[in-house]
Amino acid sequence: MLAVQDVDLTPNPQALKFILSEKLLQRETRNFANKDEAVNDPLAKGIFEINGVVSVFYMDRFVTIEKDPKASWGEIQKPFVQFIGGFDKNLIPAEAEPKQLSSEEETELLKTINAILDQRVRPALAGDGGGLEVIGLEGSTLKIRYQGACGSCPSSIRGTLVAIENLLRREVNPQIEVVSA
Question: Domains of the chain (ranges plus CATH)?
Answer without folding.
Answer: 4-91 (3.30.1370.70), 108-180 (3.30.300.130)
